Amino acid sequence: MKVKVSNQEIREYLDIETPDFPKYVAPLLNLVNKYAQGTRPRIVGQMTELIQQFSGKSLPEWEKWYLEEKPNAIAEATEKVWQKLKEIKNVMDKIDSSMVEMWIRDLVVVKTFVGLRFQEAILKKGADFKGCDFRFSKPVEESRGIDGFIGNIPVSIKPQTYQAKSSLPESIGVKIIYYNKVKDGIEIDFGELF
User: Fold this and answer.
1) How would residue 116 be classed by pLDDT, with cut points 50, 70 and 90?
2) Residue from 32, 34, 65 nearest 47 by CA
3) Is residue 20 part of a domain?
């Protein structure tokens, strides 16, 4: 039998008061802290190591012990998050309806198009490296697993995860260019081509 215990229940079992923040405050401060990096180990310490060094049992004991070990950590983390929050507040005042519309358009129209059309960018980048032209495959070539040509070399473009699927019965018979989507673009492995 599996039972879930919520964070709120854990606090109640341990007799720990839950702060009553206004709506959106906790998730907003969480987001701001991601940018401010106020609670990184270099500021507040490596918590998993610190809690193992602590020999007490209660929350008040932990708080006293922690503040003796890291006397400036809370103030330093607070200052980093507070400064970042002030920066974000300043930016918030500059956001208007047209900026929101521009962001929505970029997300829905542009980024969707880019995300779905990156094969062309991969072919162009490969052609740049080889100093030649590229072209997309024709329907008959596409039916054989060819996505395009770099110069006169037929290539197939596959996600990096495709390599792990070695049990696939598919045999393409052409050079494969692997890619991996990353936060700020795509990483391309032209290893089989060059």
Assistant:
1) low
2) 65
3) yes
